[in-house]
Structure formats: structure tokens, C-alpha cells
Amino acid sequence: MNEELKKLVGTKAADLVRDGMVVGLGTGSTAKYAIMRLGERVRNEKIKIIGIATSKASAELARKEGLTLSTLDENQVIDLTIDGADEVDPNLDLIKGMGGALLWEKIVASCTKREVIIIDDSKLVDVLGTKSPLPVEVLAFGWKKVQRALANFDCKPTLRMKEGKPFITDGGNFTIDCKFERIEEPRELERDINNIPGVIENGLFLGIAETILVGGKEGVEEIHRRKKS
Question: Which of these, 58, 147, 151, 229, is most buried using a 10 Å CB contact count?
């Protein structure tokens, strides 16, 4: 997604925020535009919001934009969260975490009334796992044992590296990226992966997203989760 399209999608998501809301601030190159737009709205419209950042990078940007930040301990219910995704399937289930913040993102999402995901149309897939690896956040202690266990799920697990060293999440953990051909049973896989000792969380975000804003050649399309009758 080019920068103008990222800005368009991020701006549209930020404009869903209302005065007085507690807002989850996602992580990544598209979510940053939502944070920047929220800062603009705070300055120009004088709205008052409280931000809960999903990463240290998002918190730093939010402070630069003049947003008021708080913690989940002080605000355990979030009105709306704006975040990106690496894959979205027709059920609006997601793979997230290639930006390195999946644990904090999932905790924030679990406290959120309305999760709004902003992507470009290349992130839409028929079946999860066909484009993006599935990130799994693990303890540094014993990570190789976890890697071997993950390989039993017919994937290729690779420790994420940065500048020749293991990538360290904001929570102080390692990330193992698992490349699948496709994930046929995501709910079963989510449960089984999280049952491995040493696994902290994985990047399957299932049943969480309510609204997807998709940027494409024709502009921004809104996709909403169907409410159960």
C-alpha cells in the first residue's frame, strides 16, 4: 500500500473516534497515520481521548502528537482500537504480529469493544496462512524446544532475527515465525500452539475484528462482521 493510501485508510479509521473515548493505538506503518490523524483532531477539534498504546513505538509517536496516554490497569475497557493486520480471511479472522507487537496487540484487543482493522487489499486471503507467516511469541528460555514442537504442525518455524541477533519484543520475548501452506483449522491451531510450554501467545486473532477498512484502487471499502442472529 502506498503512503497516500495508508494515510487515507488511517485517517478514515481515526475519524471513527468520538470525544471522550479510550482508544487502542495499533502498531505499524498504517496505524501510524491513524495516530497522527488523532493528534490532528485533538489539536484542531479539541476532542479529549485517552490512548492505550500497543507498542513502545506507538506510545512514542502518540506523545509526539500530543495524545494523552494511559495504561490497561487504569482503563480496563477500551472503546475502539485501530490496528493493522498481515492477513484477513472472509470470516474477518486475522494473522497479526509481523510488526513485532502481537502480544500487546492481543491484550489490547481482548479489552476492546470495537476492533477496527486497517489494511490494503493485498492482505485479503481466502485461507489464513497462505501469504504471511504466523508469528508466535515465546520465552527466550528454551526457545529451541518450542521451535521443534511448532514444527510438528507442518510448518517451517524460524526464529526472527534483527541485525544478526534474535529480535526482542517490547515484552522481552523472542518471536518464531511459522510458515504454513495454509491454516485449515485456525481455532484448533490457536489452542494447540498456546498449549506448548514456553509459548506466550500467537498471531491468530479470531473473532476479534468488527470492522475492516480496506484500501484499494477504488478508495476505501468497509467490511463489517455479520452479527449473529
Answer: 58
